[in-house]
Amino acid sequence: MWFLPELRRTLACGMVTACAVFAGCSSIQVDKLPSGSTLPLVGTGTYASESSYIIRPGDDLQIKFFYVPELNEAVKVRPDGFISLQLVDDVRAAGLTPLQLDEDLTARYAKSLDKPNLSVIVRSFQGHRAYVGGEVSVPQTLNLDGGVSVLQALYAAGGSLPTARLDSVLLVRKGEDGRPITYHLDLSESALSESKVDSRVALQPSDIVYVPRTPIANANRWVQQYIVDLVLFRGIQLGFSHDYVRNRNSNSN
């Protein structure tokens, strides 16, 4: 395994080069990114939990048939958002509520069964998590049990290191198309004393909180490199667009 450090350095260099080309004319400075004031907060009326759970990659599902028990299956939602089932092959599950997936499967199985009476049960919410990394004591994924703020996540990761730039924290959040959107958060002591809302931003599934050592000049370039690094070297899947990660992997080769 002696060659792994060298392989990692080689791939990282390739990613940096590819990201530089990709960023090209679309350089975005961190101080021009949207702030946490535009996001839902924990502990205020602006934060509302989902009324119906949305299935995400990593979730464990049980598909139960009432009249055809031999078709019962326990499946995990793949990183690409699909599940594989008997008779109907691959079906997209991520992004749907259990009821919506139930209706979709009922329609699909109606082509093969007379009474496709089934239910979709979410057994574990593995996709309901976020990642905290950078200049923190213990970079890690966090299970979100509801109402977890950015500051609480920072404490859960053991707090920041002395080298951390808390005025330049980045929050990467998945957009509606699955692609990352980057926000700039100020978690410095002066900002906290001024009661800024950045520290109370409510984390959502797939969020990435990154505490840098130094200011990040080009947010686009950093996001492209860091998300690919998470997937390639840490094995962390947080549900960002499969096409986005695949394209970045292709560019880094």
Helix fraction by DSSP (H/I, runs of at least 4): 25-40%
Please work out how many helical segments DSSP would assign.
Answer: 6
At the fourth level of CATH, the homologous superfamily of the largest domain is Outer membrane lipoprotein wza domain like
Structural class: alpha+beta
Global outline: elongated
CATH topology of the largest domain: Outer membrane lipoprotein wza fold like
Query: What is the level-2 CATH architecture name of the largest domain?
Result: Roll
Characterize the main sheet.
5 strands, mixed
| Strand percent estimate | 15-25%
Mean pLDDT: 77
Task: State the gist of this model.
This protein has 253 residues and is α+β, with helices and mostly antiparallel strands. It has helices at residues 4-23, 98-109, 150-156, 189-193, 219-234, 242-252; strands at 60-65, 73-76, 82-85, 89-92, 118-124, 129-134, 140-143, 169-174, 180-185, 208-211.
Topology summary:
Layout: H1 4-23, E1 60-65, E2 73-76, E3 82-85, E4 89-92, H2 98-109, E5 118-124, E6 129-134, E7 140-143, H3 150-156, E8 169-174, E9 180-185, H4 189-193, E10 208-211, H5 219-234, H6 242-252
Parallel strand pairs: 6-10
Antiparallel strand pairs: 1-2, 1-5, 3-4, 6-7, 8-9, 8-10
Helix pairs in contact: 1-5, 1-6
